[in-house]
């Protein structure tokens, strides 16, 4: 597979005083196009407001930093005004209209990962803005807009022409946006920082999985996700998705080393990663990570809402299921070596602490 799998950083697409929108391009990260995946980051400064838009792709949003507010409108439904905080994962199916706002001093940063199989451009999100310099209604004639909205053409010129910003604006300090409602989080948001742990291994790492059980709306998005925190120097077991799914990984904090092995046992990637890097593991390829002494965390989406992984080391690995004779014959080793191999990692699942 002659595709560059090297991790990449996002590049700025547009922005101004209110914040910025950055994205990963298929021209830099070819696996986005190959895997029909889009990836972007929205960053809002204090009083930054991301104008209402809808997208050609279903997504999972993940709050990397800060606190803020999002408006979410499903087709033919009322607006949900949702408070956001670090660790929130939000399912955004097709047809949803969203806006985003930050009233705090700390920058609000939201990661957006999604499926572009139905998008206009493979491997890229295309947003359709309701207002602003690129708003949908700038393309209609005043007559059409006037009749659609039942206002005169002077009002049309104000409504369509006054907002000249592209995508993101900075609101006046005194401007009051809608207040979020706690009940509006229900069914839309799942906080991965506060959720019960799905895996917790001492000196190894922790995992929280996002799936249809804890956020049913991800079934409409068609994606699963997880947040993984690896303790200093620990290793994540070599493994692969056994349901023909891609894994898209964003490094949230820390750093470490990554190896990916593909067809015919060829190592297709050996690199170091740091916060802000994004990389993609192709279907059925095996990936493993070892983090630096300060630890590493990452947020991943998997292109199925309820992913299943096969691990190739540890207590739950396939090796433990195979019979001794099969291992002896496959490795071409003696029973003593097979027994030594089988005796290791008996009490550890998918994370292994650093050597003592």
UniProtKB/TrEMBL annotation:
UniProt family annotation: Belongs to the 11S seed storage protein (globulins) family.
CDD domains tied to this protein: cupin_11S_legumin_C, cupin_11S_legumin_N
Occurrences of domain Cupin type-1 (ranges): 3-157, 195-339
A Pfam cross-reference name: Cupin_1
Alphabetical keyword list: Disulfide bond, Seed storage protein, Storage protein
Matching Gene3D superfamilies: Jelly Rolls (2.60.120.10)
Protein's UniProt name: Cupin type-1 domain-containing protein
InterPro entries the record matches: 11S_seedstore_pln, Cupin_1, RmlC-like_jellyroll, RmlC_Cupin_sf, Seed_Storage-Functional
GO molecular function, one term: nutrient reservoir activity
